[in-house]
Structures are given as C-alpha cells and as structure tokens.
Model the fold of this input.
Amino acid sequence: MIDYISDYLEALGARIFIQKSDCGQTASLFATFGPEEQGGLVPSGHTDVVAVEGQDWASDPLTMVEREGHLYGRGTCDMKGLVECSMATAREVASLHLTRPLHLVFTYNEEVGPSMLPALSRVWWG
Done:
C-alpha cells in the first residue's frame, strides 16, 4: 500500500520520504506538497491495524457490520479516514499554489512508538 500511495503522490509532484521498519515488512510515508521550507501543516494518519487476539468483540472484527446505523469492525473509525481523504483530494492539492508546505504523514505502529520522528524533525528543525 505504501508503494502505491508513494507512486501516486510522487506522480502528482509530491516529494516522498519512506522510512522502512527494521524488518522491512512495514513502512511509513512522508509526502510533501508545496515549497521546500520548514514548518507547514502535517495531517497524519496510520495504515496498519493492531492484532485482535484476546479482545472482546461482539462480531468478527475483520468483517464490517452495520448495526443501528453504525459501522463496526477493525479500523472503521480510526485514523485511516485521513489517508483515504488525502488520496481523494491529492490531485486538487497538487494543483494549488501553496505558500506553506503540506506534509502528509502515514505511519505504522503508532500505538508503540513514533516511527516518523526522524522525518518530522527534518521538517521542523532542518
């Protein structure tokens, strides 16, 4: 998924930085639109889901179900919405003449540690 997002955003003109995990199985993506300067806006979403073993679910967490107008399932109401919205609006964002950078940060393993701190520190402090 990170490769797909990276290719798509890079084709629209985003500058891309990918930070792979030590095992190489997961990665975080940092994409920037707009001028090359410090600061800017940093919306952030995550791309992974944590394990479901040992949790008390009323239905299969890996199958989304609707009950009383609400959707239930693993990942239905967390930070993945930002990733989807970012992808849906990326073409429009790329066409704007931004005066400040827009950094899209899509991480993994956010429950355990901030996997993008090295990249974020470059944005804010050079």
Notes: The chain has a mean pLDDT of 84. The beta strands are 15-20, 27-33, 44-46, 65-67, 70-72, 102-107. Helices lie at 2-11, 80-95, 117-125.
